[in-house]
């Protein structure tokens, strides 16, 4: 037993393959960055539909949120990578395939846009009406009010919750190896097949993820708290 | 030819569902004059003010700013057409509003609040907006608070910042919606002081207020609103000294006690 433990924490093998593993980690980062950027934009769009004056727009926003927020990451990933291209192929009568990276970004963007939409909606609805009245009274257009008055406040208010969602999204990028995106986990399993020593490799991967998420989340949390306090004192 | 009034309120009605809040209110505000609107809670004062700059579109009637209708325009064939939101926005920027709850934007500094609309709406270059902003903040004696955030100011300071923000748009008139109602008595005076100075400088103002002393001392005319109608109006001396209607007498007696 102690020998097994020693083996698990002997990360020299992990370190030996650092170049290829780092490359995998960069893929995680890329999937994360792309999915986060698209999910934020789509989430904002869905939130604006959710608070729209028109009933059909509100329905559409709610449909988006409920469908994607309640879909497990894994199912969505498989569905987008294997089923969606088939559906499109049948529709246009031509064979279509998605690059694994694209599927990963689309699937994670769908799921997390549902979460972000709800965070945005709560933030938008928390802005006091008087703030918007003041903008309107000075003759600001609705777009100016959204960009200059609503969103900057929403972003500050939603930061803590959004931060948790970013962390979840980063964690979720570890499942993209299932559809052969060459991320850290994918490369770890490749190396494992060659070296036949899963313990140090998977432990190294786990520690790497933990450290990255812990350091980034603590940094962003401290920064966002200082930023929020300025206006919500 | 008589001068066109700065603001003409013409037979304004406002109905929320089955509730008639305003039932035909008309009055003129001449250039450089101060009109105070008084009345009990629920008499329609705040709704009237919100209708004047179309934060609430009147159900009927029209507001004219220097003879131009705010909510409609007359087309080439002489027909009245409702204005688009963009056109209403272009008109309403001529009226500065000071709200009861200040409504400063909490994520901007005091100076940021003051220069925002001049830059975004009037499209002034930043440098020019800054110069105007600082001048307005000096006028309300807040020049030492330019880089503070609203959350760090007292209520009186916030309201003076809100007045500076309205002034920075160089409006044709200022509308005050119970500007001192959410302030402690000791902070009320600093705001009323600034408003007195504005009135003395010839600023055209409509003030919805519960401050009878202010209405009496500063206004050129006072309007007493009751149940969505003007019950009585006239120079403050007349209204406060010799109210004709029983309702105004009763209303004023509450303030004399």
Low-pLDDT regions of chain B = none
Inertia-based shape of chain B: globular
CATH superfamily annotation of chain A = MetI-like
**What is the count of β-strands of chain A?**
0
Shape of chain A: flat
Which class of secondary structure composition applies to the elements of chain B? alpha/beta
Estimated share of beta-strand residues of chain A? under 5%
Radius of gyration of chain A: 22 Å
Overall number of strands of chain B: 12
Write a structural description.
The complex is a heterodimer of chains A (about 230) and B (about 260). Chain A is an all-alpha fold and about 230 residues long. Chain A has a single domain (about 1-230), classed as MetI-like (MetI-like fold, Orthogonal Bundle). Chain A contains ten helices and no strands. Chain A has helices spanning about 1-10, 10-15, 20-50, 55-70, 75-90, 100-125, 130-135, 140-170, 185-195, 200-230. Chain B is built from nine helices and twelve strands. Chain B is about 35% helix and about 25% strand. Chain B has a six-stranded mixed β-sheet, sandwiched between helices. Chain B is globular and about 50 Å long. With about 260 residues, chain B is of the alpha/beta class.
Question: Which key terms come to mind for this protein?
Answer:
heterodimer; A: 233 residues; mainly alpha; 10 helices; 0% strand; B: 257 residues; alpha/beta; 6-stranded mixed sheet; 4-stranded antiparallel sheet; globular
